[in-house]
Design goal:
346 residues, globular, mainly alpha
Length: 346
């Protein structure tokens, strides 16, 4: 079958082995084939049984054994391999970052769904960007990927593994060019903060989470980031610190969530605002201030509803019903809120 391909088809298929979990025609055109050649070449590879095309999803798939065979062929040409993997990394990192940064709030749910289809490509792209440090590729992508996992679109354990891999890869190189110091340090702060989040959620490892948050704060307060606007990074750290303190000291947690909300609000980060308010509501409820908790969670619901975020709205309704309303002995209201929340995601 390989001998039936001409030289251009062999080169194209070997480069397509960089994809994970399938791909769309646009991605193949941008990374490997060029827009003009993509339809014809992809059709040829489908006809010769090297690719499968799913007309329902408009995605192409490669059998794993064939992908490994193509990868071996690609590895035999180091220059071609480097170019293909770098282009793959750049494409998905920029697509991830720009999709989230450039989308209207109401469009974010469809953005998360699109990321889910390509999550294996996104993971591979981000890990390569961290390993070989491509300036700018990872700054926005890391934050978007963190929110993706945190909101339940992907497996949380995979999130922890992915961010641990990015931390190790990015930290392996100590000599950072002076022109890239800010972006690299800022990216590491985001990676550490999200890893702290997943570490606590996946294995309830609060000490490691605390250590990671301290490392991120040390970077934020260091000389490399003193002249930059890092409000979103500080908001994320304050948010996770709130959950660190939630059970042992709800009063301290409440202060951190309030700080997180203030910083997210200043940055105009509505998704972060919604979750910070939700955390504030939980902390106030644990503290015994149910009226304050009701106000904070109600505001959270309003924020999520305004941006069309059904996942966040559902979670907030669950907290308002299952935590706040129950503690206020409003059992019928609690049941209604929980049912409404469930109806949003089922």
């Amino acid at each position: 079958s390989w001998r039936r391909l001409d030289q251009a088809e062999r080169a194209a298929f070997s480069q397509l082995s960089v994809f994970r979990g399938g791909f769309e025609r646009e991605a193949a055109a941008q990374i490997v084939m060029g827009t003009a050649a993509a339809p014809r070449r992809l059709a040829t590879l489908v006809r010769k049984s090297f690719l499968q095309h799913d007309p329902a999803t408009h995605r192409y798939h490669v059998h794993e054994l064939l992908r490994q065979y193509g990868s071996e062929k690609l590895n035999a040409d180091p220059a071609l391999e480097t170019a293909a993997r770098d282009q793959h990394s750049q494409y998905y990192c920029e697509r991830l970052g720009h999709a989230v940064e450039g989308s209207k709030d109401s469009e974010l749910p469809s953005v998360w769904d699109a990321i889910q289809d390509d999550i294996e490509n996104v993971r591979a792209a981000c890990l390569r960007a961290a390993t070989y440090w491509h300036p700018g590729h990872l700054v926005q992508a890391a934050d978007a990927l963190g929110w993706f996992y945190y909101r339940g679109y992907g497996n949380l354990q995979h999130g922890e593994i992915t961010f641990r891999g990015m931390e190790e890869a990015l930290g392996a190189s100590k000599a950072w060019p002076s022109s890239e110091t800010f972006d690299r340090a800022r990216t590491m702060v985001r990676i550490l903060a999200w890893r702290a989040t997943f570490r606590q959620l996946v294995v309830v490892d609060k000490e490691t989470s605390k250590h990671l948050l301290r490392k991120s704060l040390t970077l934020l307060d260091g000389p490399n980031l003193t002249d930059g606007d890092c409000g979103v990074e500080r908001a994320q750290i304050a948010y996770q610190t709130g959950y660190y303190w939630l059970y042992p000291d709800a009063g301290t947690a409440r202060q951190h969530f309030a700080e997180s909300f203030r910083l997210y609000q200043e940055a105009g980060h509505k998704l972060g605002m919604g979750y910070a308010l939700l955390g504030l509501g939980r902390a106030a409820s644990f503290y015994g201030s149910q009226d304050e908790a009701r106000e904070a969670v109600s505001q959270s619901i309003s924020v999520f509803r305004a941006i069309g975020d059904r996942v966040g709205e559902s979670e907030a309704m669950g907290v308002l019903g299952g935590m706040v309303a129950v503690k206020q002995f409003r059992f019928r209201e609690a049941e209604d809120l929980i049912r409404q929340g469930l109806s949003l995601i089922h």
